[in-house]
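Reference record
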Amino acid sequence: MTTTTCVLIFDFDGTVSLGDEPVIAFARHLDEESGSASGLITRTISRFLTADGRIGAALDGLTDADPVYLALHVVDGSVDGYYAAQRLAGLLGVASDRIDAAYEASRADLADGLISTRAPEGFGSFLAAFPASAHRVLVSNSPANGLTEQIDKLGLTRSFDEVVTSANKPSGLPAIAERILAERDVPPSRLVSVGDVWVNDLAPVAPLGALTALIDRMPVPDGAEPTVRAPHIEELYPWLLEQARS
């Protein structure tokens, strides 16, 4: 049995699986739950994502008479499209259990192949280049339904050593990380967490002494101090491989 010398935890949506269609599907189902005939949540989240969460750019061309104008101010500061959609839906009166139902419906769309996503350029080859001593883990808040099919569609079924679904990040991530480190007999300093949402994917394990790699497509909260950061994960490939090989 190969001794593990490094653990790498990868987020899924926005990190391994790229494209905004899953978020738009979530927003669309939230509109259905809210009874919105105008598709306010979908239209707002579409603009939010097109502007990479930068509200000034998202407001460009809108007047204050447009409901999307006010809605964008409501979601300003959201860490990603999912948070923005959930926040807006809640203010529109959608109950938490119906928000959960909308999310489950969007994952069912993924499972049924109704949503298009893509892997980062060269990601499969990148994962294959890791030494055998590196333990590659995919950790997602998504349920297995939808995620399993997407991993297969992206050609990554055999690329991870372990997949954790329904992870309940951020609160659930420290226990997941500590369990993996204990099982692999690896110190926290040899854990690298990779993701696009600081509060979900990186902040929970930074106090353990883990290294953190942030994909900073969206504005980053004040106080976020990742070990490394870049707008695209492809730019982090050399650094991540270096950590695994050192």
Summary: DSSP finds eleven helices and six strands in the chain. The mean pLDDT is 95. The radius of gyration is 18 Å.
